[in-house]
């Protein structure tokens, strides 16, 4: 169980200890995400894009296997967006810009 002191504005800026319970956590890898929204929530489906073997004259295809779904309210979603933005900016400052148009090597079949 991790502990991280956090300021609490309701206590006049005093530190509050937050205990993080990871005993029921499970981890999974995702290389893609699908989002859906309502007026109250955002739904994030995390999963894997996997190539599908097709015949020689058929177009390339991908299969999106959803592994996890996270449903958040908009306040939590905005906090997540800010946190991800800070993490990506720190990564790019250290290692260089992330190229979103990077070509994937062709798979041999």
What does this structure look like?
- The N and C termini lie far apart (46 Å).
- The protein has a domain at 28-95.
- The model has no long low-confidence stretch (mean pLDDT 88).
- 20% of the residues lie in helices and 41% in strands.
- It has one helix and five strands, in the order βββββα.
Brief write-up:
With 109 residues, the protein is α+β, with helices and mostly antiparallel strands. It has one helix spanning 74-95; strands at 2-8, 14-20, 32-37, 41-52, 61-73. The chain is 20% helix and 41% strand.
Give me some keywords for this one.
109 residues, alpha+beta, three-stranded antiparallel beta sheet, two-stranded antiparallel ribbon, 1 helix, 5 strands
């Amino acid at each position: 169980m991790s502990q991280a002191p956090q300021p609490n504005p309701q206590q006049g800026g005093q530190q509050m200890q937050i205990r993080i319970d990871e005993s029921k956590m499970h981890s999974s890898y995702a290389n893609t995400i699908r989002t859906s929204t309502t007026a109250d929530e955002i739904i994030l489906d995390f999963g894997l894009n996997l190539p599908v073997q097709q015949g020689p004259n058929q177009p390339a295809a991908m299969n999106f296997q959803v592994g996890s779904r996270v449903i958040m309210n908009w306040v939590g979603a905005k906090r997540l967006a800010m946190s991800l933005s800070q993490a990506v900016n720190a990564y790019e400052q250290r290692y260089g810009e992330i190229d979103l148009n990077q070509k994937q090597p062709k798979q041999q079949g």
